[in-house]
Amino acid sequence: MLSETKNILLQQLVQNATNEELIYANGYLAGYLAKNFGIQATGVIPPAQSAAVAVKPLIVYGTETGNSKKVASQIQATFKKNKIQAKSVDVAQFDLAKLQKETLVLFVVSTQGEGEFPQNAVGFYEAIKAFNGKLDKLSFAIFGLGDSSYPLFCNAGVLLDEVLAEKGATRLLPLVKADVDYASLIPTWETDLQNAFGNASTATPTVAKSTVATTSHKQNFTGQISHKVILNDRGSNKETYHIEITPNEEVAYEPGDALGLIPKNNETELQSIAAYFNVTDVATLQDKNIRGLSKKSLENVAKVLDIEITEEKADLVDIIQKYQPKKGTLEEVVALLHPIAPRLYSISSAVEAHDGQVHLTVNLNSFKVGDAIKTGLTSQFLADYPLDTDYDFYIHKNNNFRLPADDADIILIGPGTGIAPFRSFLAQRDATGAEGKNWLFFGEQHFAFDFYYQTEIQEWLSTGVLTKLSTAFSRDQERKIYVQDRIKENASQFNEWLENGASIYICGQKDPMSKDVENTIIEVIASQRNISVEKAKEVLDQLEEQGKYQKDVY
Hints:
By secondary structure, the protein is α/β, with parallel strands linked by helices. The chain has 20 helices and 20 strands. The strands form 4 sheets. Strands 1, 2, 3, 4, 5, 6 and 7 form a 7-stranded parallel beta sheet that branches. A 6-stranded antiparallel beta sheet has the order 11-10-15-8-9-12, covered by helices on one side. A 5-stranded parallel beta sheet has the order 18-17-16-19-20, sandwiched between helices. Helix 2 (19-37) runs antiparallel to helix 8 and helix 19 (510-529) packs across helix 20. The two termini are 50 Å apart.
């Protein structure tokens, strides 16, 4: 509480201040509290003050897994509370012609792979790059999402920030580069934006940008693979490993988190590349990404080697063997390659249930390139890694994929290795005696060969931890059956669970699985509630905004 003297002074200051000054003071105090005491502002300012902010910002999000959409929705909700009219739109539905008509746009964009834009934002960025005109009527701010473990941290945000400034647009705020723990930065950005809105009419272009970054302070651990077993039975088309890691120290994680590690290159491939360039030392290649090079990386390699590469994605060893380049050196090629990026695997164990171990469920990714069988770098690395041998890893926190309250019901949809986090969820609820109901949808190719964790799942079913189980084994009958078909078959009960407050979780392949499942859920909501598909989409969007529809897809 303030003393009487300070209270009088504060009242006098507020009464004599302009609306713009009050907005500035609100932002200043929020920043001061966050910096000095770790207290995060809510982003809400008194209605009387916010009403003076007459701007109507447009929020454009570019997303691959849904995080940017969540951030955009949260910002829009805060603005609404503050009587600021704003709307958000997917960048895939927003083109350059619309951008030229806007005066204030807030971008929320994630970064993928080798510093690339989300697939739905690539065309938008390329259109701005190719644009010969000016965007000098536009003011903008960018909230970039990324992972600082990756070499090109928030690169999509950096590229968008640069190209907009090049076209004459005005930076309302410096670019924000947010790490995986981005949630804590959102209220501060909201407050800074509202402060900037009050001064938007006098804003001038920023010549030199500054970048605000946050680090997640990831802690590296060491551990050994103490147990490894193939979950598929003989005759399966898959090779999926259950891997148990025993850390050398206590490791804290929650259901929904992932384990991150940096794999090592295959020695045979390294020797093959080095030998072509008449080099014996492969040390310079050891930590460089030589697998699945992107189109941009291949274009750079093609220039150095003086060849024309037609592939849009390929391994370096395959490019060398196919094109047999006569120019360029290994040193020149290595200079173009990015470091190997970390790989993330959903944790399939729970601390309370598995004595501090960390379990993974890893499918050996295999595919054909021409007549050659190829395997994924990290999955092969783990499949081959010797038992009881130290290696480094870290825990990737995923606060956007969390269990609800113990008494809340959940619907888990996880075909294939998408079962991983849900094994963690169910083990956690079993160990803690959570009272909420649990419904699991699991799918794979064959019941006899590919029913991962069947014994555990049936045990949970018999003890009541698992309320309902719906399985879909696609190759066990002439017509392929997938988890979305089981959702349709159980449409009435599925909708009933949702109306009673259940949360939905999806984990597994993004395309086409997660999209097909989402479309099916929308169809079920529409048919069961006798509403239009558009209204059903709004229902699902509301569930997502409430944190009751969460996805971990890849």
